[in-house]
Amino acid sequence: MMTNGGFEPVFCTVVPPHVLDKLARHDDPALSGPAQRTLVRDSELRARRRVTSEFRLWAGPTAKAPAEQPLRTIYDAGHGTDLPGTKVRSEGQDPGRDATVNRAYSGLGATFDLYLKAYRRHSIDDDGLPLDATVHYDEGYNNAFWNGEQMVFGDGDGEIFTDFTNSIDVIGHELTHGVTQYTANLTYYGQPGALNESVSDVFGSLIKQYSLGQTAAEADWLIGADILAPGVTGSALRSMKAPGTAYDDDVLGKDPQPATMDDYVRTGRDNGGVHINSGIPNHAFYLVATALGGHAWEKAGQLWYDVLTGGELTSGAFFTDFAGLTAKAARERFGDGSDELQAVRKAWEQVGVRIL
């Protein structure tokens, strides 16, 4: 695995494998069939991503976004799997009749806006990377993903999941995997992988909050609140405010995320539980943001961004490493006796992560 500053894109999906595994074992083929096909497709895409990365088969973008605006292109896979698909909307074109295309276009723009206006970051790579997305991918595909080059959205099976463009935080989450790819390049396994997932949840939530003009107190702190079908007993895929409470459903089971290190899950599945243990740093961020109040992207988000892009966060960082760097960032930005530093220290203490 490369150290930070390298380029090793990974295949990252928003719906964790443990959720799809649960669905794939259901007796009802209307539920198990799409989940099984999604797992197979994800496995194929993950293997392809490894080959592309190892042999450097991606040549990179041939164009760059202008300084103050994104360069978006939306494609339609037509329920096939060839990427990118047919071009259906380019930067600057008016909305069309397909609401999915329009939501994808808007979500890419909202992500670009948060990074540019809050952190002066020029697209995902800070060098004007074009933002490409494909919608209507495959039949009943129960996921959305960043493959190291572009965003891809499934329409869901209609039984458990709906159109994955419905949640702007899902779009922001996946694109933030690209930001991490171009910065700290966190290893996608164990605690570094959970940090990778957590960073995507943090900025996915901030992108939603920024687009809605919400304060930390007004935000719902949910990830994927709008992609669960009406019959599912749950509010979202994950809750940063209360990890472990996002859903408790007869089909999906119960949200397994811990909020503190007391309940840290040791597993070899899901790359060492990257989608599960991310609840711990997620909750730490929520505690910092709500303690400081106001708009969460201004102080708490700035500290997390400082750590992600500052060059000291290594690809193999553990929770204690990340926590220590957030404290260092708070000290450098706000001072030794600042409320911001105290909020950071208290939050990590509450979730059981020591600042060394």
Description:
- The protein has 356 residues and is an alpha+beta fold.
- It contains ten helices and ten strands.
- It has helices spanning 17-24, 29-54, 99-119, 168-182, 190-212, 270-273, 279-292, 300-309, 319-334, 339-350, and strands at 12-13, 72-76, 86-90, 131-135, 144-146, 151-153, 222-223, 238-239, 248-249, 253-254.
- The strands form three sheets. It has a six-stranded mixed sheet with strand order 1-5-6-4-2-3, with helices on one face.
- The longest helix is centred in the first third of the chain and has 26 residues, at 29-54.
- The chain is globular.
Considering the chains and any ligands shown, give keywords for the structure.
356 residues, alpha+beta, six-stranded mixed sheet, 42% helix, 9% strand, disordered N terminus
Mean pLDDT: 92
Radius of gyration: 19 Å
Number of helices: 10
Report the portion of residues in β strands. Answer: 5-15%
Q: Estimate the helix proportion, in percent.
A: 40-55%
Strand order of the largest sheet: 1-5-6-4-2-3
Distance between the termini: 25 Å
Taken in chain order, the helices and strands follow as: EHHEEHEEEHHEEEEHHHHH
Total number of β-strand segments? 10
